[in-house]
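the two lines:
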Amino acid sequence: EIVLTQSPDFQSVTPKEKVTITCRASQSIGSSLHWYQQKPDQSPKLLIKYASQSISGVPSRFSGSGSGTDFTLTINSLEAEDAATYYCHQSSSLLWTFGQGTKVEIK
Amino acid sequence: QVQLQESGPGLVKPSETLSLTCTVSGGSISSYYWSWIRQPPGKGLEWIGYIYYSGSTNYNPSLKSRVTISVDTSKNQFSLKLSSVTAADTAVYYCARADGMPRYWGQGTLVTVSS
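prediction for all of em together
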């Protein structure tokens, strides 16, 4: 099983600040790493696919980078509506797995 | 725009079988992979498994002995059965369409395992 470890688990951030969330895989997964945003009582929403590919309709302040075992989700100029839990997900192996989540709170 | 909707009992007794159906609208089920994912209250996401429209499946090994996912192309639906449930199976269950990753998700349905 490929384990995905996100850091930090929690982040409290002021609006307009830059947010960086990392996801480390226990073995190389190429670029098969995807990022989701989940707001309370909502289903997850795909933000970034294949490490860095943008998704239509997702604000451009969200970007992703990385390959192999280390990946980053960046939120430039955080907005109040970005308060949510963010998950990374790998589909490189037959056993799909998710990171444990990073909760982003707005100060 | 494709839409997915989960349906099924919200309460299941311990040792019984959890059964959920996902109805797909706005597109044909005869393509893509169709997945089930769950989320225990206050916790993270766990992938259960997926099925290709042709019927081939892939399950999470931790649940494999208890899980069956099937597809009914005539009804544009796919289903989840999880047997011998315990309180640990209490979760919000999501269905999703996957094209490399779960992309379109249902709203989720809470299933509670309790006597």
